[in-house]
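Researcher: Here's a chain I'd like modeled. Treat it as a single chain, no partners, no ligands.
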Amino acid sequence: MRNERIWVELVGSVIVARVRGAPTAEMLQECEQRVLELARDTDQVRVLYDALELEAPEMELVLLQQRLDSQKKVNLGATLLRTAILVPNTRIAYLSRIAFGHVGEGSYRVFYNDYGAALKWLEESGQGSGQEGLRGSGPGPERPG
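Model: Modeled as a single isolated chain. Structure tokens:
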């Protein structure tokens, strides 16, 4: 049975993954597995992690997310997913940068409470970059202001 605090769906050309409440290792693993399956099934490379309702995780879970994200890259081949992380505050933003920053600044960006800007960045990231499906990595992001 799927966890009700995790929601992973394709919205247009973006995989949206929402995690609510206090995360657990099992929740993070299930979320990443569902993102990986959806990326494979749909050939999409853009992922939006909606952490607006996420409670700040312990550091061990942040490091688990980092490992899961690295495994996802290996499972998809040489592909880097474009990742936007939507956060409610600086604490979650800081932890997100630890969890996703290892992939390189060109592959992820953190957004503070701005769903529209996150989607726009993800949609723009594939235009004119040669990024087609699960084969490319597009241009780097701008630094948040």
